[in-house]
Amino acid sequence: MPKNSKAVKRELDDDVTESVKDLLSNEDGRDDTFKKTSLIINNHEVEGKECDVEEGGSDGEEEERPAWNSKLQYILAQVGFSVGLGNVWRFPYLCQKNGGGAYLVPYLILLILIGIPLFFLELAVGQRIRRGSIGVWNYISPRLGGIGFASCVVCFFVALYYNVIISWSLFYFSQSFQQPLPWHECPLVKNKTLTYVVPECEKSSATTYYWYREALNISDNISEGGGLNWRMTLCLLAAWSMVCLAMIKGIQSSGKVMYFSSLFPYVVLICFLVRALLLKGSIDGIRHMFTPKLEIMLEPKVWREAATQVFFALGLGFGGVIAFSSYNKRDNNCHFDAVLVSFINFFTSVLATLVVFAVLGFKANIMNSKCIALNSQRIVSLLGNRIEQSLIPHHINLTQGSEVSSEDYDQMIDIIKKVKENQFDSLGLDACSIEGELNKAVQGTGLAFIAFTEAMTHFPASPFWSVMFFLMLVNLGLGSMFGTIEGILTPLIDTFKVRKEFLTVGCCALAFSIGLLFVQRSGNYFVAMFDDYSATLPLLIVVVLENVAVAWVYGIDKFFEDLKEMLGFTPYRFYYYMWKYITPILLLVLLGTSFIQLAMKPPVYSAWIQEEAKEQELFFPPWGVVVCISLVVMAIMPVPVVFALRYFNIIDDSSGGISTVAYKKGRIIKETARPGEDDDTSLIQGKSPSEAPSPMPGNNIYRKQSGGGGNGPEADTAPNGRYGIGYLMADMPDMPESDL
User: Fold this and answer.
1) What sign for the dihedral angle of Cα 654, 657, 662, 668?
2) 694, CA 20 to 30 Å: which among 94, 117, 232, 606?
């Protein structure tokens, strides 16, 4: 209860003064008298439905808030948003790089300490306030209202390049209906006299050449725009069209798509795992992945990368979690949802890692066999010249067509090394090993579009598996895109009252227009730039502020009371200490280390040099550095701007005052706290018409007065220009109003 709410003169002993939050918390009262209600707005009676009163609208009309058709649809939406491309191509790389199976230990610990508490927090505030990110943080603290706008900006930046990755997957999907696959081997160049392999492909590999030259037609550096890649432009148009059509009706349309986009990737991953386990060498890959390197666990970098992965895997700070949760019923058990979705995400990452390493184990086996065959031929050519026949063990047959095992080759190389120690390097022989191949860590597009595609060319019925794999990537990407776009649309619709259809089409059209930057020949470099700089630091700052706003500005004790009231039980005390102390400290440490890493590492990008047919790290040009810094600044700028506007009263901060309500035997009369009084922040605060809509309860408890017609309190105009709402129990006689 606010400390300085103006006291109301009591006429009866049982009069009480409550904040708006306390009043609305009674929405699920047990008394059946309150179940069926009617609401008076502009002298029209509206039967009580699960809806919100959009006070910010120009005509004050009631607008029904959409709701999920079922709990399953909601869970699939949250799973689809949190499980994305990072689970398939980022988590396996981190697992390989940071100690194999040992990496799962810090990941699980940080999932419990950071991931689940913050995910639960976002679900709870979205479900309680029933608004998007802008509305939620405006209600909790108007001065921190910029958090919601910052989330929207980050969502927009991420959506710009994330849909480009979906368009790449669509391109590969469309090219997979061929036998053999177009990236199966290097193309040949024919002229009048001879036929030869394209030099760029010969120096690299068929899949690498296809990715950089055929798909992207990439330029040598970011400064060479090179014009639009028309095939990728069409694929980007198709990707944005799919997102627009799926989102145009809000959760009513995207929710149905979730049944396929969220479940299909699991079908594909399981099929891939079964198929990969039947291939030679898959067990080598899985063994390599799960072999723990415990000493690496002690390195701070491992914990930092695990924390960052937990953070981004759950989609924290984007606003999509809050937006999806805002369409829930108030009494939904969001704690169960938070734990369930978090562990589904974790087990999906482990499943994807098993699949990736099983396939990479198979690929490593093939590459190792090719290496042995090539070097065996070289040894045969050197026999009798620089290598004596006596150095070759008698049981090894180097005749044409014979296959040398990995163990025999290692034995043969060891002998030659010992005898020809000083001359070995000049022989040009390579040490071939499966472990060496598996240690070639790849992530991101390099894993999906180069390493994995190369492995699939060796699968029986490779076009089928290629179609399935890239269709899975499209679905994983779309699931995350739906949540990202919802994180933009829901707050804007709640705040500015625009039609969902118009805003969706406009947002997608604008994003496609800006996205043309990413489908020019240098577009891949801009994707890397946005991926590195537009999200990491801004999102960390957003989530730190979210945690502080709830735990310290609003108050952790009051938040726990709200949760108890909403869930029907008190959450574990574990969350109290996590939200108040542990999680903010861990987030600040993560923010500090991430900032130091970005500051110490010069802004570089990996460029593909056509003549050398290899990647090379280049520094961004001066304008590129400016763009990198601008992305970070623009993403976080709404937070200080809104704070300053509120602090200096440039924006009317009357919303900071908490409305008090006199509750007298069923009668409610609204009163605004005196200006200048220092109120406690309430989860549901009184807002001015220009500020934000009021989050009314699903089953409205406001009733029409039994007498007085249009001349009763419901027709009185409140100080802020809205109609006051009279409330009287059906079986109560009219009581005199309080002196306010």
Assistant:
1) positive
2) 117
Would the annotation count 355 as a binding residue? no
In this structure, the number of other CB atoms found within 10 A of the CB of residue 67 comes to 18
Query: How far apart (Å, rounded) are the C-alpha atoms in residues 271 and 731?
Result: 64
- Residue 345 marked in a binding site: yes
In what helix (H) or strand (E) does residue 39 lie, and over which residues does it extend? strand 38-41
Q: Beta strands 659-664 and 667-672: pairing type?
A: antiparallel
Residues whose CB falls within 8 Å of the CB of residue 310, separated by 6 or more in sequence, listed in order: 107, 110, 111, 114, 115
Which stretches of 568-657 are DSSP H helices?
573-577, 583-600, 622-636, 638-647
pLDDT, residue 518, reads 95
Q: Is 80 known to sit in a ligand binding site? A: yes
Could you give the C-alpha distances from 293 to 59, 286, 287, 299, 435, in angstroms and in order? 65, 14, 12, 11, 14
Indicate left, alpha or beta for 286 from its phi (over 0: left) and psi (-120 to 50: alpha).
alpha
475 in a labelled binding site? no
Query: Could you give the percent of the chain with pLDDT greater than 70?
Result: 79
Of the candidates 158, 157, 160, the one whose C-alpha atom is nearest the C-alpha of residue 236 is: 160
* Strand partners for 228: 520
**C-alpha distances out from residue 557 to 218, 562, 579, 682, Å:** 56, 9, 11, 12
pLDDT, tens digit, for every residue of 373-422? 888 888 888 887 777 777 788 777 776 556 788 888 888 888 888 887 77
**Tokens standing for residue 557:** 């004790």
To the question of whether residue 476 is assigned a binding role by annotation, the answer is: yes
Q: Which two tokens stand for residue 313?
A: 């895997």
User: Got the DSSP string for 174-209?
Assistant: HTTSSSS-TTSS--EEE-SS-EEE-HHHHHS-HHHH
Report residue 9 CA to chain centroid gap: 51
Long-range contacts of 181-185 (CB under 8 A, 24+ apart): 181/453, 181/456, 181/457, 181/462, 181/463, 181/466, 182/210, 182/214, 183/207, 183/209, 183/210, 183/211, 183/214, 183/453, 183/454, 183/457, 184/457, 184/462
Distance CA 301, CA 94 (A): 11
The alpha carbon dihedral of 375, 376, 380, 385 has a sign of positive
Q: What type of residue sits at position 665?
A: K
CA R_g for the chain: 31
pLDDT digits (tens, 9 = 90+) for 428-464: 787 888 888 887 767 678 888 988 898 899 888 899 9
Checking if the pLDDT of 122 tops 80, the result is: yes
DSSP, collapsed to helix, strand or coil, labels residue 645 as: helix
Residue 87 marked ligand-binding: yes
Q: Is 51 left (phi over 0), alpha (psi -120 to 50) or beta?
A: beta
For the whole model, what pTM was predicted? 0.77
Could you tell me which residues come within 8 angstroms of residue 91 by beta carbon, excluding any fewer than 6 positions away? 309, 313, 349, 352, 353
